[in-house]
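Ticket opened by: R.M.
Priority: normal
Category: complex prediction / small molecule

The reporter submitted a protein together with adenosine-2'-monophosphate and asked that the result be attached to this ticket for the collaborator who will pick it up next week. Submitted input follows.
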Amino acid sequence: MTENGDAATRRLFFALWPPAELAAGLDAIASAAAQRFGGKASRREKLHLTLAFLGEQSVAILPALHDAARRVAAAPFDLVVDRLGLWRHNRLLWAGCAPSPGLDALAAQLGAALASAGITWTERQRAFKPHLTLARKLPAATPAAEITAISCAGLPAWPCTRFVLAASQPSAAGSLYSPLAEFPLTAVVAK
Ligand code: 2AM
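Result attached by the on-call engineer:
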């Protein structure tokens, strides 16, 4: 319990964080798009791809979350960020990647590990649509075709070797993300 008598909770999610060079390239795209179309670009250090969103959770489950994440037996893989898109329902500009069996396997393994640890969710889960949020609050009339025409060709590949448990905290300047723990991808791929 906190001093207020409330059970301590954190807003938690598992995610992949891009390496610095890729984050810089995505940041440049996000800033240019926000300047051209309007909206608010995500800060470079906040760029990530969510694997599983847990929502508000008691801090008491953190040890069980760590155990579940350590049980994930997924192999490292490379992602190629190769597309941009616009979701009109939440006016969000996103970057997506080429289909990746490695990413799908990691998300599935993590979901299974969380389920078998009995982790439950208080917030409605969106379907898994891997993306990095580049900008929010784009004007409703932003032309989607002009977004998808922006090239991702210069972006470096993304070697994924670890995933992260992070907490999100609302603030006046938007959500702040703090990494809580890192988990290496170590499984050997069968040939
Ligand atoms: P977003 O960037 O598309 O909003 C921390 O908030 C992370 O969790 C963000 O990547 C956010 O995605 C994602 N997220 C927030 N609410 C979610 C939900 N209900 N289901 C899945 N992901 C969610």
